[in-house]
């Protein structure tokens, strides 16, 4: 799983003319997809079956962080319809750039071994709902990664709003009892 910090793509942050640089974002997404595809080949898989599964489907995950901060830099309130629209546009752009990049990698390196254009683009599959130009590229040259799991904002939980948040970690003590460390509203509570 890779993550891209959205704050790096805000031009003129906090200004009236603040904007999101989709072109630069697209280039970074393409590099991230290539990097994640490379990771599949250099990973030391614990089991042969895991290596075979990874090689057959070449699934990767790509997400973003910093959505709330990017929205603030774009002068958008986090809880408005306008901010939700910007977030949806960024998510759709990431999806489209990632799938285009994977199709380009297929032209260079070959499609994932189990690829069949008819099956991949058929019916109600996720790929069948991609924009037409991406589907045409996939049909023509294949796609390198069977699944590109596009994730949302990985830092949203506990970062925004007025609700308290809690994170807990447990590990066994020598006595066999569980030791717990919780963060609640930014304060550590140990047991």
Q: What does the model show?
A:
The longest helix has 29 residues, at 81-109. Helix content is 42%, strand content 20%. The chain is globular, with a radius of gyration of 20 Å. The strands form three sheets. The protein has a three-stranded parallel β-sheet, covered by helices on one side. A three-stranded antiparallel β-sheet has the order 6-7-8, with no helix packed on it. The protein has a two-stranded antiparallel ribbon with strand order 2-3. With 191 residues, it is of the alpha/beta class. The chain is built from six helices and eight strands, in the order βββααβααααββββ. 24% of the residues are buried.
Compact description:
It is built from six helices and eight strands. By secondary structure, the protein is an alpha/beta fold.
**Computed Rg:** 20 Å
Unreliable stretches: 155-173, 178-191
Globally, the shape reads: globular
What is the residue-mean pLDDT, rounded to a whole number?
84
Question: In percent terms, what proportion of residues is strand?
Answer: 15-25%
Please give the largest β-sheet. 3 strands, parallel
Order of helices and strands: EEEHHEHHHHEEEE
The level of helicity is 40-55%
Alpha carbon gap, first and last residue: 32 Å
Structural classification = alpha/beta
Strand order of the largest sheet: 1-4-5
Determine the number of helices (DSSP H or I, runs of at least 4 residues).
6
The tally of beta strands, per DSSP, is 8
């Amino acid at each position: 799983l890779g993550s891209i910090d959205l704050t790096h793509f805000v031009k003129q942050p906090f200004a009236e003319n603040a904007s999101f640089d989709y072109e630069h974002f697209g280039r970074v997404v393409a590099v991230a997809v290539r990097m994640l595809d490379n990771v599949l080949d250099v990973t030391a898989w614990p089991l042969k079956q895991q290596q075979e599964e990874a090689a057959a489907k070449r699934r990767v995950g790509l997400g973003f962080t910093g959505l709330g901060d990017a929205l603030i830099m774009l002068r958008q309130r986090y809880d408005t319809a306008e901010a939700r629209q910007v977030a949806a546009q960024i998510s759709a752009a990431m999806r489209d750039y990632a799938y285009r990049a994977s199709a380009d990698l297929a032209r260079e390196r070959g499609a994932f071994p189990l690829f069949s254009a008819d099956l991949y683009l058929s019916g109600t599959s996720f790929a069948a709902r991609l924009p037409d130009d991406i589907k045409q590229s996939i049909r023509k040259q294949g796609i390198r990664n069977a699944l590109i799991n596009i994730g949302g904002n990985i830092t949203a939980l506990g970062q925004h709003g007025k609700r308290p948040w809690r994170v807990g970690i447990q590990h066994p003590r020598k006595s066999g009892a569980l030791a717990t460390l919780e963060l609640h509203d930014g304060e550590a509570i140990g047991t």
